[in-house]
């Protein structure tokens, strides 16, 4: 089966892309649909997909993961009702809220319930709520409003009693007063034009959707969403996605320790959240000054002759490759690195730089292979462990992040960057006490002024040290209420 051809078609039509282990999901979905419609070969099926949009939608329905639940990241709902809605209503009489990528409805219905709780049923006079998704089968379920216990991971029992009726099969049926408050629409966020009724929105929840998209598509959809956003409007992503979209299209506004995108250049204080302190794929700004070039030699096991040869051959070329990488001239940087590696197969600093560049190119498999090669041949190379953790972070694999950062810290216990990534991964995994401890350590290490001691060769800072400290303090104060 020519998976590339399927992948390309799907990327072009709706921006979803499949690689690594997700290729298996793609293969299974294609096989399943071919069986259902009795298509004889994958070539035939590809042709059907090209011309038959309803079959294309059927395949997409199988491919989109619709994982969601009520009151997910509930702090966003509190900010909505307590800060955003009053601010918007002070400027206009009616507001439109949209859940983009609403899946089976738990997100827009959580918005409705929050509005009921704060404003009573009168909220419908000043606010409408829309749910939009590409997947027709999830929209169908959303409109029915019947949910099993999986949807109530983070839900207050009293609210459950108030807004749901228990059904005979142990599920919960949402009351009509909530269902009727949401207008559901099928929408491919990648469409060149959105229908008129899905424009002029004041608040967009776009959470846990962009994970499916390649970086260009992410940027494109973010741009489209910011276009349908009214001036003064807000765009909310999940905390783990926010950093990846700070690409200069919308400003960031901090509300109660959380960072939300805002379409207003006048009144916003720019407080980039720095949820990842280093700048990788999708970032626009460079800060060459913040680049600490690591000059200390590694690979001491080399014979003397080679060491001398490397000193004469590599230093300038390495600096050049590093500068090219920082300038995002990745092809040229990679070619310089290959020359370096060819002249000295054990010059591991060149391999770590190559890994960083491959990460920036989003070639995660190659990046991982290169980093694993370093670990195998130079097991005390702390940078390789951090880079593997960084790749795991992009793949949203918290367990691997924790493993890799702990390995890095075993080699160098005072590396603040590894502590920071560890804190974030613990927080994501709900391990609040561990997260708390790690944020504390990061702050302590940063206070002693050792920011350049981060362990990475290519380290373009995505924010200032103050922003990083601010983020840690915010998370600590949120965690203090819990731990
Ligand atoms: C993980 S769910 C997120 C649900 C909800 N926003 C939340 O945070 O709980 C992702 C949803 O995005 C939808 N989606 C994926 N690609 C899309 C596209 N191109 N246009 C619209 N929706 C899309 C999927 O169908 C899925 O229902």
Which features would summarize this protein structure in a list?
483 residues, Rossmann fold, binds S-adenosylmethionine, alpha/beta, globular, 3-stranded antiparallel β-sheet, 7-stranded mixed β-sheet, 3 domains, single chain, Serine Threonine Protein Phosphatase 5, Tetratricopeptide repeat, 10 strands
How would you portray this structure in words?
The chain has 483 residues and is α/β, with parallel strands linked by helices. It folds into three domains: 3-63, no CATH class; 74-262, Rossmann fold; 288-480, Tetratricopeptide repeat domain (Serine Threonine Protein Phosphatase 5, Tetratricopeptide repeat). 52% of the residues lie in helices and 10% in strands. It contains 20 helices and ten strands. It has helices at residues 3-14, 22-37, 42-51, 53-63, 74-89, 106-119, 136-144, 157-163, 176-179, 215-228, 239-242, 304-326, 330-343, 348-360, 364-377, 382-394, 398-411, 416-428, 432-447, 465-480, and strands at 95-100, 127-133, 146-147, 164-166, 172-174, 182-186, 201-205, 229-236, 251-255, 258-262. Strands 6-2-1-7-8-10-9 form a seven-stranded mixed beta sheet. Strand 4 and strand 5 form a beta hairpin. Helix 12 runs antiparallel to helix 13 (330-343), helix 13 (330-343) packs antiparallel against helix 14 (348-360) and helix 14 packs parallel to helix 16 (382-394). The radius of gyration is 25 Å and the shape is globular. Bound molecules: S-adenosylmethionine (SAM). S-adenosylmethionine is lined by residues 14-16, 64-68, 72, 101-103, 107, 133-135, 138, 187-190, 207-209, 212.
């Amino acid at each position: 089966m020519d998976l590339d051809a399927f992948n390309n078609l799907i990327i072009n039509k709706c921006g979803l892309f499949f690689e690594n282990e997700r290729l298996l999901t793609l293969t299974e979905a294609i096989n399943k649909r071919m069986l259902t419609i009795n298509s004889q070969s994958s070539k035939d099926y590809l042709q059907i997909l090209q011309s038959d949009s309803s079959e294309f939608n059927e395949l997409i329905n199988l491919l989109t993961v619709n994982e969601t639940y009520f009151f997910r990241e509930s702090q966003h709902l509190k900010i909505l009702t307590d800060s955003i809605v009053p601010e918007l209503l002070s400027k206009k009489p009616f507001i439109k809220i949209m859940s983009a990528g609403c899946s089976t409805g738990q997100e827009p219905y959580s918005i409705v319930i929050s509005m009921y709780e704060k404003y009573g049923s009168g909220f419908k006079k000043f606010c409408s709520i829309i749910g939009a998704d590409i997947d027709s089968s999830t929209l169908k379920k959303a409109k029915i409003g019947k949910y099993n216990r999986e949807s109530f991971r983070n839900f207050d029992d009293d609210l459950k009693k108030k807004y749901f009726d228990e059904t005979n099969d142990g599920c919960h049926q949402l009351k009509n007063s909530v269902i009727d408050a949401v207008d559901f629409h099928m929408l491919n966020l990648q469409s060149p034009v959105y229908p008129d009724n899905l424009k002029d929105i004041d608040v967009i929840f776009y959470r846990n959707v962009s994970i499916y998209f390649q970086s260009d598509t992410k940027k494109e959809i973010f741009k489209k969403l910011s276009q349908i956003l009214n001036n003064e409007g807000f765009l909310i992503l999940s905390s783990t996605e926010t950093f990846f979209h700070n690409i200069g299209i919308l400003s960031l506004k901090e509300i109660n320790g959380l960072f939300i995108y805002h379409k207003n250049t006048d009144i916003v204080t720019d407080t980039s959240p720095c949820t990842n302190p280093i700048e990788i794929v999708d970032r626009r700004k460079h800060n060459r000054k913040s680049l600490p070039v690591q000059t200390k030699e590694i690979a001491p096991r080399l014979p003397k002759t080679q060491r001398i040869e490397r000193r004469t051959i590599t230093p300038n070329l390495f600096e050049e490759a590093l500068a090219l990488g920082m300038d995002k001239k990745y092809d040229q940087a990679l070619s310089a690195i290959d020359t370096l590696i060819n002249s000295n197969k054990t010059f591991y600093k060149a391999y770590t730089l190559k890994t960083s560049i491959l990460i920036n190119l989003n070639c995660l498999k190659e990046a991982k292979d290169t980093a694993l090669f370093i670990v195998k041949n130079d097991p005390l190379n702390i940078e390789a462990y951090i880079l593997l953790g960084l790749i795991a972070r992009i793949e949203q694999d918290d367990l691997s992040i924790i493993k890799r950062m702990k390995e890095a810290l075993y080699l160098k216990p005072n590396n603040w960057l590894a502590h920071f990534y560890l804190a974030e991964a613990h927080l994501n995994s709900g391990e609040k006490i561990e997260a708390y401890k790690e944020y504390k350590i990061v702050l302590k290490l940063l206070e002693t002024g050792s920011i350049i001691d981060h362990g990475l060769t290519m380290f373009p800072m995505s924010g200032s040290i103050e922003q990083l400290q601010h983020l840690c303090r915010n998370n600590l104060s949120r965690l203090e209420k819990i731990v």
